[in-house]
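ok so I'm stuck.
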Amino acid sequence: MDDQGSILILGLGSEILRDDGIGPRLARDLRTHFTSKHFRFNTSTVGGLEIIDLIKGYQIVFIIDGMKSKESQPGEVYFMDTDHFKETLHLSNIHDASFHTALKLGSEIGAKIPKSIFIIGVGVEEDTEFGETFTHTLQDEYVNILKKIHQFIVNQFKMLEVPASIDTIKGG
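replied:
not stuck anymore, here's the structure
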């Protein structure tokens, strides 16, 4: 963890499509909780092969994206790793390579793929309607969602035994 910027929190989604903007907003708000120089924050509207360019070179990556499926509930938070990945909105685009295919290709072409990748899915209700506000369900749960994700990230550092140099994690 000596490299500056070795941890990425990446929020995926479009902020003009109501609940789809949950990933970028959470990534921005988490910036105030994780102030160490080791953290970097980014947002994007794309997944697929482009994800390799966004995550390469980092040691640990947390990807936050909306989820909409029969199994997901609006406002619920789902924590996954690459082995137990469920489809999220941007990491599962049917018009592009799947997330697993992108990771495999990245490794094959020599991109430095992170050692630890965590996918955080947030159940969304409306992801196709234009608007910059969340649906009531997501807005009402937003603070709880942020707290759950913050605590998950803090817990990962404890489990990964990240050195004390990441001591500017607030809360936990």
